[in-house]
Amino acid sequence: MRSSNLGPQDFRSVSDLAKLPYLTREIIREQGSRLRADNYPDEVCQFRRSGGTTGEPIKVAVDARARGFEVATYLRGFEWMKYRLGSPMVRLFGGSLGLKAKPNMRNKMREWLLNNRFLSAFELTPENVRFYFDTLSQAKGGVLVGYASAVMNLVEYMARNGLQGSPLESVICTADHMPEEWRRRISEVLGVPVFCYYGCNEVTGIAHECSGVDGYRVSEEHVVLEVASEDETKFQDQGRGRACITALFNYAMPMIRYINGDVVQLERSQNGSGHLKIAKLEGRVADQLTATDGHMVSGALPPHLVFKSGVPVWKYQVVQVERDNIVFHYLMSEGNVLTPVMRDTLSTVLRRYLGEDMKISFVLGDFEVPPSGKHRFVINRSQRQGPNGSK
């Protein structure tokens, strides 16, 4: 701001954000400490390492005010998707992967108060699907929330075992791409509507689908969302481009015009409200992985593993070249090397969920780039996959 001769008086509308440059992951990695506010010390902040769904994790400080507003936005968005606070929520996500201690009393109390039940997305198999189905059957009036690919695997295993229907109000998916054929299949098997929401760990919930609304409604009280272009001095809240996010409440580490790696198409609603919506969400496309016994595992496993393990890679890609052979491509954060202990940690968890006979090798760089040019963090070349990972 000093170099551009800018002061607070120069910012009177959201379009004035274009007076500031874009914030990239590279800048955060290289200059993260300089982006911290001096009056928000470490003890009043929560530190998040992004989930790395673009293959490049980063670390962000978040203050209590921002966390409170994020929760409010998250719960309101879920209400748009038929969730009611206090009703059962079955969460089909990754879990601890055995890398951290058991949940503490505070977390247990929170889960109890919110009526949450947890199911591991990565431990789901055709053999234990009855347990997952029984858990859903006990969540009357609630919702199932999980990775889109994991929910798709669940309903396929249910269908193969003659299990149909649920007492849920809706299914809510996130984290990976939701093809329309998946949405139809999930709704058909579970007998409820299927919604998706969009967010990133650095900012959490950004936009949610709603009943009767086409696209994702942006929580404009929480974030300013625009599309980035070659001309960063132009503010654009409509059109297609890289998602550019300004978080309005994180004073500890302001995320201003942050480009998170996703591609979106923004439009203004024509139903009279004029609210901003994501008409099309691109990016986050990942194959599923194949276990050595042939069952499918959500492609969210590698980013969740990188996030939970804390291994300081800043870019990675998991390529399954054969059913029993995986290559882990990586680049380390500056000043770090991939130690034998780190390799063992990553290999042990991957084998736990994909099979003890899985061969895992590590390659520095040499990433595969698809024709689209977008970085993909999981590629499965071991078989041609259909919508549910089948041949």
What does this structure look like?
The chain has 391 residues and is of the alpha/beta class. It folds into 3 domains: 124 residues, Rossmann fold; 110 residues, Rossmann fold (3-Layer(aba) Sandwich); 92 residues, ANL, C-terminal domain (GMP Synthetase, Chain A, domain 3, 2-Layer Sandwich). The protein is 23% helix and 29% strand. Helix 5 packs across helix 6 and helix 7 packs antiparallel against helix 8.
* Record field, number of beta strands: 19
Silhouette = globular
Main β-sheet: number of strands, strand sense, barrel status?
A: 11 strands, mixed
Strand portion: 25-35%
Alpha-carbon Rg, integer:
21 Å
Report strand order across the widest sheet.
4-3-5-6-7-8-9-13-12-11-10
**CATH homologous superfamily caption of the largest domain:** ANL, N-terminal domain
**Mean of all residue-level pLDDT scores:** 88
Query: Which regions contain 5 or more consecutive residues with pLDDT less than 50?
Result: 385-391
**Gross CATH architecture of the largest domain:** 3-Layer(aba) Sandwich
CATH class placement of the largest domain: Alpha Beta
CATH topology of the largest domain: Rossmann fold
Helix content: 10-25%
| Class inferred from helices and paired strands | alpha/beta
Task: Output the helix-strand order.
Answer: HEEHEHEHEHEHEEEEEEEEEHEEHEE
Count of separate structural domains: 3
Q: Count of DSSP helices?
A: 8
N-to-C terminal Cα separation, in Å?
Answer: 54 Å
